[in-house]
Amino acid sequence: MEGPDMNEGGPPARLWHTVPQPSWSTPPDPGRSDLDPEDWPGTRRQAHRMLDDILDYVEGIRSRPTWQPMPAEARARLREPLPLQAAPLAEIHAAFLRDVLPYATGNVHPGFLGWVHGGGTVAGLLGEMLAGGLNANLGGRDHAPIEVERQILAWVREIFRFPEGASGLFVTGTSMANFLGVLVARRAALGEAVRTEGLGADGLRLRAYASRAVHSCVPRALDMAGLGAQALRQLPTAPGGGLDLDALRLALAEDRAAGFQPFLVVGTAGTVDTGAVDDLAAIADLCAREELWFHVDGAFGALAILAPARAGLLRGIERADSLAFDFHKWGQVPYDAGYLLVRDGDMHRATFATPAAYLRRETRGMAAGSPWPTDLGPDLSRGFRALKTWFTLKAYGLERLGHTIEETCALATYLEARIKATPELELLAPVPLNIVCFRHRGEDPDALNARIAVRVQESGLAAPSTTVLNGKLALRAAIVNHRTRREDLDRLLQAVLALAKD
After folding, report:
1. How many domains does the chain have?
2. d(CA 210, CA 457)
3. Of 78, 264, 491, 501, which residue is least crowded by CB atoms under 10 Å?
4. How far apart are CA 492 and CA 502, in angstroms?
């Protein structure tokens, strides 16, 4: 039975009949101006080939090199002139398969151990594809994608035991989340006037604190906030690699005596070099006493809260004023999916919300749904990062994701034991989470291990990185990919030992 409300897949049919239809005084231009396919069936077949190819790539990733250098001819082809005319989709896809796919970063591969990059998942891949089709702008307004992002916020609050009033925002990554966290802390310290009058003399006296192991994006955040990178005092680490709290207390006293205004302490949940975790509970206690903003850089380590055996390392993270982390690392969401969580949602909005006539809010219609994400950060144009995250969390569940996190830590413990049992190798740092720093003991070890790292990368067997710990160059294996197994680590060690003799 048909009727005015039986318009399947769309609004009630009667709505369409009440809208006046345009009349044309002249016929429309017969030339095409839209960009939709002329051949939908052919485009659909090509799209299915493209999806099959990328699924084949992920499914067969172990048969490929972890990484390989890009040849000069491929680079040259990617420096072609500006395309003025259309090219067939199949031709563009072929160029991608030839010149892009074989020479990617390699973090999908289980042998990728060099940097803290997640491996991604098929569920996230498909969510990203659907997000591209929707082409939603998540700056604001009243639509379902915003509700998906709000659903993620509710889940994140529950994961980290933040209050109902806490606010959250998807951003590119923890570097941006840390920057926004500094801006919220700056607004809390200097008040509303900082947004209209600038820093003033009070702003120039602000001081922030973190360990020397803090990520380089944190001093850069102070720089971009107008405070200057030197406004961050980087303090010694304790024997376990976390922030030395005695050094922090001394620095606070010294700075106050010198006329500075301490306002922010940045705790680290998983240092980039070794995976060390600051004593977050002790820092939270200190910040509460001293009335300081407590921000946690939890780029990858914050999600250890999903692994019951590791969650105790993060005790105190639930007391942070703000927390930055990445779903695209241990959460295995495809890049990019960074996140900022702020305990005081009102302060978060007060830092960024800006009234504008074209952003007028209503109680009904598309302009409803306030507050909007644009009230919580600088972007009005925002992609649908929440969808691939929503797909990932729902497809695997937090218990399974927590299990993969625990497995990467167990693999790090396995690699640590193998290194300790191998006389030619030396462990250079404790292994609290999933990062193992070691080196070969051979002659001129800094030069030797730098050479080994490059040659292992170029071999395609694995992709470690290097760092410097206590003046010693280290090989660094960061085990983040859910596909990594013991045999991948065995191959890494075999290659290190063989190349040291070569």
Report:
1. 1
2. 33
3. 501
4. 15
Boundaries of domain holding 241: 126-354+362-394
pLDDT of residue 364: 85
pLDDT tens digit sequence for 315-339? 999 999 999 999 999 999 999 999 9
Q: Are strands 206-211 and 232-235 parallel, antiparallel or unpaired?
A: parallel
d(CA 482, CA 388): 17
Calculated CA dihedral for residues 447, 449, 452, 453, nearest 10 degrees: -110
**pLDDT reported for residue 184:** 98
Does residue 3 register a pLDDT over 80?
Answer: no
In a domain, 387, yes or no: yes
CATH number of the domain within which 159 lies: 3.40.640.10
Query: 91: closest CA among 51, 46, 56?
Result: 46
Establish if 463 belongs to a structural domain: no
Tokens of 297: 């850089």
435-440 β-sheet, strand order: 425-427, 435-440, 472-478, 465-469
Q: Alpha-carbon torsion 71, 72, 76, 78, what sign?
A: positive
